[in-house]
């Protein structure tokens, strides 16, 4: 029974599943907003598809010369119907634009972050810098994060997704992520956290996110960057603030 009930509490999707079509489970408010917007627009999409195809097929079915050789010969213009099919789409676009811009500006906002992390894309791995903390020698904490080769994988680790050094972040903290590239353009993308930022050499891109629960969240480089583009995954582990500080202590 316990095992059966635990089915409803289990988070299945912190890594992609084979042949998955839907979203991964959200772990950040930003991604929850993206899923909600997707569902809102999906509603309009279904309504529009049904009404357009219904109109199209009924016109083809009823108004053809085989069925009515003479009756519709002079039916060439209708002002009312023209007005309806011009104004209605405009109203629908406005209805879609409002929630879209709302989410866009909400996600763009960076208000007093607790922590700043810089992620740098290289051919072909990611490196991280945490400048809020210094090591004993006075430098910022920085480390490289390489994909684990298949031969090094342990039971429970994901092929092409797990890395040697995960990025550790605290839960329930506003984190500022600054992304750049060291050589060519990469893209820092973690679906369950709603992150996707281009890593452009000579440019700093910024985003803010908050992880709502502990766990490990996987992503991949999302801008084709060379032969091993598919082998530079991202793994972020969200832990309690206490565990995060312990990790910082061990890293510095
Ligand atoms: Cu890439």
Automatic annotation (TrEMBL):
A Pfam family the protein falls into: COX2
Catalysed reaction equations from the record: 4 Fe(II)-[cytochrome c] + O2 + 8 H(+)(in) = 4 Fe(III)-[cytochrome c] + 2 H2O + 4 H(+)(out)
Cofactor: how bound: Binds a copper A center.
Classification via SUPFAM superfamilies: Cupredoxins, Cytochrome c oxidase subunit II-like, transmembrane region
Places the protein is found: Mitochondrion inner membrane
PROSITE patterns: COX2, COX2_CUA, COX2_TM
The Cytochrome oxidase subunit II transmembrane region profile domain, residue ranges: 15-111
Residue stretches making up the Cytochrome oxidase subunit II copper A binding domain: 112-250
GO biological process, one term: mitochondrial electron transport, cytochrome c to oxygen
Primary location class: mitochondrion
Cofactor requirement: Cu cation
One GO term describing the cellular component: respiratory chain complex IV
Family: Belongs to the cytochrome c oxidase subunit 2 family.
Protein name: Cytochrome c oxidase subunit 2
